[in-house]
Amino acid sequence: MTTSQIHSDKKRSNGEADASSMSSKEIFEVIREEGEEELARPNASLFWSGIAAGILISFSVLGEAIFRTYLPSADWAYLVENLGYSFGFLAVILGRMQLFTENTITTVLPVVHERSLTILKRLLVLWSVVLFANVIGAFLVATLMAHSSAIPSELLPAIEELSRHATGFPPFEGFQRAIPAGLLVAAIVWMLPQSEGFGFFVIIVFTWLIAAGDFTHVVAGSVEMAFLVVQGLLPWDQAIFGFFLPVLAGNIVGGTAIFALLAFGQVRHELDDDEIK
């Protein structure tokens, strides 16, 4: 069941008039319930959904490359170019695919709510499965981009340029730039329950901000990393320790350690004591 479906059921049962009337507690409960459903899904379902997300997120790289290739050289072109970054996120989020950074808040809220070792272990398994699947999907589509005619050759220079830039930050800078990206993806998840009819625009605006702000995202960036790796343009050690792990850590800090805990903190004293274990 999607966030919108869960919220619709709540509205029908509670007689709520519109989504904008949702309180922070109600948003928390909607996302927590969705997180519990995700945690209960079979690992095989999570795995295949994660691969699909890793493949579809490549449209963020492709979208940017198309704009960069065909837009004229002008100061405003950078702002338009980064709209292309939203394409992959639209496909993944609206398509209900398993994206690791989205899970850093959705599946964490049940953990901070229940606070048991059992659910923490389940969270770590889900994260591992989804992240591994996202990376597999990223490598599959990057290999297709680099070693087939599926992508027009005139786009490849822009894809390589974007990839070198995304993976070229020093590790600590990549980590720091990943924190705002984690926060922004978590903010999208937090806003979607009360943005019925406007979720499309929420995703576009906030993912555009990730790109325009030159922040780093571990899954979209994995497509760019893989594009270079499969061509021998980026050594494995640099890819893993210079890009992937620092950005992964930053996204987790932004989406979980900051946003999820703040989301819980603002409703903690509004929840009944017997609701929190």
What do you see in this structure?
The protein has 277 residues and is mostly helical. Helix content is 73%, strand content 0%. The chain is built from 14 helices and no strands. The chain has helices spanning 3-14, 24-40, 43-56, 58-70, 77-81, 86-94, 100-106, 108-114, 117-147, 156-166, 171-191, 199-212, 218-229, 236-265. Helix 10 crosses helix 13. The longest helix has 31 residues, at 117-147. Residues 1-17 have low confidence and may be disordered.
Properties at a glance:
single chain, 277 residues, mainly alpha, 73% helix, 0% strand
Let me know the number of strands. 0
Structural class based on helices, strands and sheet pairing:
mainly alpha
Shape: globular
**Multimeric status of the protein:** single chain
Q: Low-confidence segments, ≥5 residues, pLDDT <50?
A: 1-17
